[in-house]
Amino acid sequence: MSTTTKAPLPEEHPIAPFLRMDRMPHIWCPTCGIGTIVKCFATALDESDLDLDKTAIVSGIGCTGRVAGYMNLDAFHTTHGRAIPFATGLKLGRPELQVVVFSGDGDLSGIGGNHFIHAARRNMDILVILVNNFIYGMTGGQNAPTTPTTARSSTMPFGNFERPFNLPHLAASCGATFVSRWTCLHIRRLTKCMRVALRRKGFRFIEVIAPCSTLYARLNRLGTGLNLMQFYHDEAEIRHDADTRELDIGFQDRIVCGNFIDEERPTYLEMMHSHYEEVLGDRFVPMPPEGGWIHE
Amino acid sequence: MKTDPAGVLTGVHYLDGDYACGEGAMAAGCRFVAGYPITPSTEVVERISQRFPMTGGTFIQMEDELASMAAVVGAAWTGTKVMTVTSGPGFSLMMENIGLATMMETPCVVVNVQRGGPSTGLPTMVGQGDMMQARWGSHGDYEVIALSPQSPQEAFDLMIDAFNLSETWRVPVMFMMDECVGHMTEKVVIPPADEIDVVPRTLSDKKPGEYLPYAVNGRPVPEFVRAGDGYRFHTTGLTHDERGYPVMSVECQEENVHRLMNKIRLNADQIIHIEEEDTDGADVVVMAYGITARVARMGIDMARAEGVKVGFLRLIVVWPFPEERIRELAKKVKAFVVPEINYGQMVLEVERCAGGKAPAILVPHGGGGVHDPATICQAIVEASK
């Protein structure tokens, strides 16, 4: 005779405190990768020693653009492509904030591409998490600046003939001080990468490759999200410190992952402060960390 | 409350309208400006970038006007008073995030030093062709507030009003200067800080958990909190409920957007600011704003010399438009004469409000210069017949 004992279920999911549970269920499709990445991010927040009351999250528009709306932080769901400049305003308006931008490939590298390169150039003190599913998902599977050459999209029905961005290289060449790429299969590594990035300063960029089974996989006959996870398992190659010039992603080709850049360079605010202290001396009055606001 | 003296350059100065506008912003407590260079507005941000490092403010030159406006909306949520500055082509790019600011109910000031348009138009020369764009430029239904100064002194004084109105009503306020006022140099008196009243950011006294970002509880605007104070609030450009959560329904759209309209429409009498001279008993009333108001005064003097009874109505707040006053005057006057540096924008509002009781006669100017006062005089004399 044997008895089976069940471990008691926890009252709530360990990451529930980091989510707006009153907004569940979320809008993402079954086997979409974004939820997994949110789980990694919430876990990274949990494991970090950040003051979450002083942590703000900003998203643009699109599937990943909904992330801010589900995080239990000060959260801003903004306009298409403008999450980075909006986040720039938040950071400069109240410099003590930790500001995270969480948005998609079309949002951040398509319509928002100009803001991306300039924030990297300035070493603006924000963490940018970009979910790359190779396609515009929310609007129905149109071609993105990240769609691999020859892959099909609804606006490239005969296959994409454009060359996609190599996003880690774009970020690195513009001056990002922390650059990584993972897939949403790499849960432990991605979580650790996010935890490390949250502790760094300056413009930090994490690209996360994620399956879009509803559109990208269907239009390209790649099966379900699970098939794509299997593909990441088989074809992702971890190569830390790889030369970012060699990180192009071809259609159903090897995906090089890893932590490529992690270096220290003065941030925008540090540059501003040290420069004005040098040239203006005691006359320089920096904006207080809590913001330059007037109140009773 | 009285303003922070750090931004106030008290004294008697000789400034152009752009510099005076920048001084007005700093005196009003503005401490964050994001902008992109564009003629004829650049002197505003040049002034601010010279003074901000010594006054606790931050200026950042963004990569374009899309980014400038987005940064300003973001910074406003920290409680810091914010502004951006541009001219026509940049104003067009800002429309996207001006819409976001109206939907999120974000106080901010957008200065447009108007030049001749459309498109690149006349970069260094005057225009007043963006008046309707200020009201209708972003998509969807919304209401904003717009002001138009006629002198460098007013560029200073009205900036204080612009910031106070944006804070009170939680809307973007359009500061519709024109190149002439922007580049005109005159005496500007900046009062001491203890004579400058500012509307501070008033924060909710509710606790996190109790606070709803868009609950109005019978007031015209919701209570504010700042990012970073532990409220963990959510805001979005999507149609949203009191929690700031997206709700895609006819009912929520009605509740959300109608309130955005009504907070201005139902309180317009508290916002409208006009100046009248000799409108009682006038046969003709001239309506003008900005630099054209000053030119129109010369035309009015000339018409009076010819014996015409002319009144003058100057728009200081341009939007919301003084509908009621125009309706009243329309019952009494023979005609309105509206000179403006465009081919007919605010004149359409006069015509609408006059409702056929008195004609609204446009005196157009395509831009690049101001009216010849004799042209305005001639229109007044004709209208009086």
Features:
heterodimer; A: 296 residues; alpha/beta; Rossmann fold; eight-stranded mixed beta sheet; 8 strands; 33% helix; B: 385 residues; 2 domains; five-stranded mixed beta sheet; 13 helices; 16 strands; 37% helix; globular
Q: Main interface pair? A: A-B, 51 and 59 residues
Average of pLDDT of chain A: 96
Strand content of chain B: 15-25%
* CATH third-level topology of chain A: Rossmann fold
- The low-confidence parts of chain A are none
Write a concise synopsis of the structure shown:
The complex is a heterodimer of chains A (296) and B (385). Chain A has 296 residues and is an alpha/beta fold.
Can you walk me through this structure?
Helices cover 33% and strands 16% of the residues of chain A. Chain A is α/β, with parallel strands linked by helices and 296 residues long. Chain A has one domain (18-283): 3-Layer(aba) Sandwich (Rossmann fold), CATH 3.40.50.970. Chain A has an eight-stranded mixed β-sheet, with helices on both faces. The termini of chain A are far apart. Chain B contains 13 helices and 16 strands. In chain B, strands 2, 3, 4, 5, 6, 7, 8 and 14 form an eight-stranded mixed β-sheet that branches. In chain B, helix 10 links the parallel strand 12 and strand 13 (310-315). In chain B, helix 1 crosses helix 2, helix 10 (291-305) crosses helix 13 and helix 11 crosses helix 12. The relative contact order of chain B is 0.13. The model of chain B has no long low-confidence stretch (mean pLDDT 97). The chains are: A alpha/beta (296), B alpha/beta (385). Chains A and B meet through strand 2, helix 3, helix 5 and helix 10 of A and strand 2, helix 3, helix 4 and strand 10 of B.
Give me the secondary-structure topology.
The complex is a heterodimer of chains A (296) and B (385).
Chain A: H1 34-47, E1 55-59, H2 67-70, E2 74-77, H3 83-93, E3 98-104, H4 105-111, H5 113-122, E4 126-132, H6 167-174, E5 178-183, H7 187-199, E6 204-209, H8 213-219, H9 225-235, E7 236-238, E8 255-262, H10 268-280
Parallel strand pairs in A: 1-2, 1-3, 3-4, 4-6, 5-6, 7-8
Antiparallel strand pairs in A: 5-8
Chain B: E1 11-16, H1 17-27, E2 30-35, H2 42-51, E3 58-61, H3 65-76, E4 81-86, H4 88-104, E5 108-116, E6 122-126, H5 131-136, E7 145-147, H6 152-169, E8 172-178, H7 179-183, E9 185-190, E10 234-236, H8 250-265, H9 268-271, E11 274-277, E12 284-288, H10 291-305, E13 310-315, E14 317-319, H11 323-330, E15 335-340, H12 346-354, E16 360-364, H13 373-384
Parallel strand pairs in B: 2-3, 2-4, 4-5, 5-8, 7-8, 12-13, 12-15, 15-16
Antiparallel strand pairs in B: 1-9, 5-6, 7-14, 11-13
